[in-house]
Design brief:
383 residues, alpha/beta, Rossmann fold, seven-stranded parallel beta sheet, four-stranded mixed beta sheet, 46% helix, globular, binds nicotinamide-adenine-dinucleotide, binds magnesium ion, isomerase activity, manganese ion binding
Length: 383
């Protein structure tokens, strides 16, 4: 029996994780759950899973949960409590499924505690990739990707990296793949969040629509698989059936295919090196629409170009684009800037921030803070 600490339990990845747990009550136990503010949903989860701990990061929500709870679950509050539950001696696996930079500290804490980290929170690696990977090595943690593309690469690389020439991340292209760029300024948050293949949280849905999600994933892949930027390629594949591919020098290409459902990658991270039923229907290739592949359009999806540039630039550039992106997406979702404002804010923040190298977590956190302030200033000028 493995004890799971599930961070971001009320989110899209959190819910899918619980669906996999439901299929295997003999293998997995929910030891701790966390959420930000949604205490009503957390109350339902506590009633069902009876975890030892429930963390609400927001203090008022923790108080409300505490007053309503009837199980023996201990309710904790604040971001600090996330670190406590991940490092707890009874935690075996940590599902890191908080959205954004807010998920970095707890994911890193899981690495330092030598746990199996099932990593959905790609932002952790974008912010602190070097520090994170070093902690995984030093503390003998196990890092298993949950992002579907990285799970695909991880699965394809099971026979090793010998003779590897490049990896190729597939991108669906999002809802605006075929929308002319002159229509981009009219895109609403609801249109941006209506992804054709995947059902996800609102932030990552907007990231998919701008293709910044793929940009963040290129950076994630660079750290996870320790590859040079030129070994990481992106191909647009609107059907989201081929989840990603690895290319070898002998002419072989290995790809991982499946229906677009995160439970495959989640269950693999939970059962690795074995495989278990995830609840996802088997792919029926004879009933699948024709698979298409295109070159990404960097002129239209400038966020993807900015992410590649930030990776090549190194230092604080990746932290800066991530911070500016989070602020810009939040403002877009709140109808404060238009869709085209997102790449503009990121680009301007990146060119205003001084380029430096960062050597400590404190410097990373500080850079993230300063970049957010600068992005807000840029939005004031933009708006
Ligand atoms: P979501 O918005 O659906 O859920 C986010 C979760 O994080 C919620 O449980 C929320 O309570 C919690 N949260 C939000 N802000 C927080 C804060 N400040 N402190 C602590 N907790 C906070 O997001 P999601 O779609 O499940 O995505 C989660 C992560 O997984 C993201 O990093 C995303 O990029 C990654 N991911 C998601 C998918 C997907 O299909 N949804 C696929 C690949 C990767
Ligand atoms: Mg992905």
């Amino acid at each position: 029996m493995k004890n799971i600490t599930l961070l971001g339990a009320t989110g899209s990845i959190g819910k899918s994780t619980l669906l996999v747990v439901d299929l295997h009550p003999d293998r997995f136990n929910i030891f701790a759950l966390s959420a930000n503010t949604n205490w009503q949903q957390m109350l339902e989860l506590c009633n069902k899973y009876q975890p030892n701990y429930a963390v609400m990061v927001d203090e008022q929500s923790a108080e409300k949960l505490s007053n309503a709870i009837i199980t023996d679950t201990q309710v904790l509050s604040g971001a600090q409590a996330l670190d406590e539950i991940v490092a707890h001696q009874n935690t075996d696996f940590v599902m890191a499924a908080i959205v954004g930079a807010a998920g970095m500290s707890s994911a890193l804490c899981a690495a330092k505690a030598g746990k199996r980290i099932m990593l959905a929170n790609k932002e952790s690696l974008v912010l602190a990739g070097d520090i994170f990977m070093k902690a995984v090595g030093t503390f003998n943690a196990e890092l298993i990707p949950v992002d579907s593309e990285h799970s695909a690469i991880f699965q394809c690389l099971q026979s090793g990296k010998s003779g590897l020439s490049k990896i190729q991340l597939t991108a669906s292209g999002g809802p605006f793949l075929h929308t002319p760029i002159n229509q981009f300024k009219f895109i609403t948050p609801d249109q941006a969040c209506a992804h054709p293949n995947w059902s996800m949280g609102r932030k990552i849905s907007v990231d998919s629509a701008t293709m910044m999600n793929k940009g963040l994933e290129v950076i994630e892949a660079h750290y996870l698989f320790s590859l040079a930027p030129k070994q990481i390629d992106v191909v647009v594949h609107p059907q989201s059936i081929v989840h990603s591919s690895v290319y070898y020098e002998d002419g072989s290409t290995l790809s991982q295919l499946g229906n677009p459902d995160m439970r495959t990658a989640i269950s693999y991270a939970m059962s690795y090196p074995q495989r278990i039923n995830s609840g996802v229907a088997t792919l029926d290739l004879s009933n699948t629409p024709a698979l298409e592949f295109y070159q990404p359009d960097f002129g239209k999806f400038t966020c993807l170009k900015l992410a590649f540039e930030a990776l090549k630039k190194g230092g604080n550039a990746m932290i800066t684009i991530n911070a500016a992106n989070e602020i810009a997406v939040e403002h877009f979702l709140n109808h404060k800037i238009d869709f085209l404002g997102i790449p503009k804010i990121i680009d301007q923040t990146l060119s205003t921030m001084k380029h430096t190298t960062l050597n400590s977590l404190e410097e990373v956190i500080n850079n993230d803070f300063v970049a957010r302030e600068m992005a807000r200033e840029t939005i004031k000028r933009y708006g």
